[in-house]
Amino acid sequence: MNAPKCLALVLMAVFLCGCANDARKEMVQVKMNATQRNAGKIAQAMLVPRGDDTSISLVIGGVPSYTTRPVRLYTYIYPGTCANQGASPAYGLNRTLITDRRFRGGVWWMSKSAPVSLSTLRASDHSLVLRTTPADGDYDIFCGDIR
C-alpha cells in the first residue's frame, strides 16, 4: 500500500475512533471511487447527521497531476447512483473549494455541509461527486454512492 493510501486510512480510523458511539452508529461511510481521469487514487467520505443538515468530511488521497495547487475541488450531491446519475446536481456544496493539505504525499482534507438531512439522502439513491474546477478541465475525479 502506498503512502497516500496508508495516510487516508489512518485519518479515517482516527476520525472514527474520536467519535461518540451513538454518533458512529448514525454515520455513513462512502467509498469514493476514482474515475478514469484520476485512476489509482483513493478518497473516502464520512457523512454525519447534524439536525436538518449533513456534515461531510472528505479525505482525498490524490488528484490528477494537472490540478492547480492549492487544490480546489467542487463537491456535488446528485440524485441517483454513480452508475445512473441524474442530469443535474440536487445540491452544490461549493461555498468553499480549497482543500487543506494535512500530510506530505498528496493527502488532502475537506469539510462540507449539505442542506439536507442524512436520512433524506439515504431514503433514495444519491451520489457524492468531486470535480476539478473549470480551469482544471471541470472533470469528475471521484464518485461514491450514499447508502
TrEMBL record:
It comes from the Bacteria. Keywords: Signal. Residues 1-22 form the signal peptide. The keyword Signal applies. This is Lipoprotein. It comes from Metapseudomonas resinovorans (Pseudomonas resinovorans). The lineage of its organism: Bacteria, Pseudomonadati, Pseudomonadota, Gammaproteobacteria, Pseudomonadales.
